[in-house]
Amino acid sequence: MNLADESDASDGAVRIGIDLGGTGTRFVALDGEAVAASASFATPSEADATAVVAFLVEQVRAVASDRPIAYIGIGASGPVDAAGMIRNPDTLPAFTGVELRRPLIEAFGVPVTIDNDAVAAAVFEVRAGAARGFASTLVVTLGTGVGVAALRGVQPMRGADGQHPEAGHLSVNGADAPCYCGRSACFEQLVSRAALQRSAAALIAQSPAIPADGAAVIDQAAELARAGHPGALALFERFGTLLAAGVADLVTVFRPDCVVIGGSAARFSSEYSEAFQRRLSQLEVYRAHPGVRFSAAGDFGGAIGAALQEPRAQA
């Protein structure tokens, strides 16, 4: 990671970043340009408010070790309201409606910001990743769900009410993918990493000789695609085509200079990028023409981005 333009000189104090996702939670301690420590855990799904606060406090202390802490930034699977309260009972049930900022401020005596995890991912891409040098950026993260963030410079574009828009919940024509959001054909249910995993598992189940291995099932489908398996090729073709449909709508609205596709499904971009680019090039009406890049952030990019976020006033 190159943060040579950062003005903060390391004085021994670390910035803590937390990527609170629907499946996994990642912690980093950032000392200047360097990740001093990192850790990853399954996200608690069945716990009370006391337990989830204790989980965060314990892991922040552990990742900071004996270093002083300057700031704590959290990127959480949204919705996250303007006050920093998580409102996501579908993928973060244990953290929804729980006051997290105040206990962390009291425990560590430092500023704490909670924002949408897509914003944290976008901050990483702009400051240290694929979008460095662009005036405006759209980041679409494909993980347990689909996160969307648009930044002008390093400043996130918010909704009219000050909250971050949940733009991963778009309607997609010609698909059948009901979502908890109420749509019968939702972008999130079609192009998240979780959706890709479901499709890959269904494909592998049709080939009993190939063992399905949990999340590794996408790797197995990708190997089949590289070997020319018709079903696997069709799977990634459809994924790329559907991804382009949603990204085209987002580009129409946000008109960025650069689009970055991130999240854990970005690792498989070589399997679907041709279909994605081909379909995106066909959708020309009313949209800008940004360059598209695929993130190489890795598992801790979102947590690093959370640590790099500017403190935000939250009541």
Q: Using DSSP, what is the number of strands?
A: 10
The share of residues in helices is 25-40%
- Our estimate of the beta-strand percent is 15-25%
Shape: globular
What is the CATH third-level topology name of the largest domain? Answer: Nucleotidyltransferase, domain 5
Instruction: Compute the CA-based radius of gyration.
Output: 19 Å
Annotated CATH architecture of the largest domain? 2-Layer Sandwich
> What's the CATH C level of the largest domain?
Alpha Beta
Question: What is the arithmetic mean of pLDDT?
Answer: 88
How many helices does DSSP assign?
Answer: 9
Structure description:
This protein has nine helices and ten strands. The protein is globular and about 55 Å long. Strand 1 (14-20) and strand 2 form a beta hairpin. It has a five-stranded mixed sheet with strand order 3-2-1-4-5. The protein folds into two domains: 14-121 and 300-308, 2-Layer Sandwich (Nucleotidyltransferase, domain 5), CATH 3.30.420.40; 134-294, Nucleotidyltransferase, domain 5 (2-Layer Sandwich), CATH 3.30.420. The protein is of the alpha/beta class and 315 residues long. Mean pLDDT is 88; it is low at 4-9.
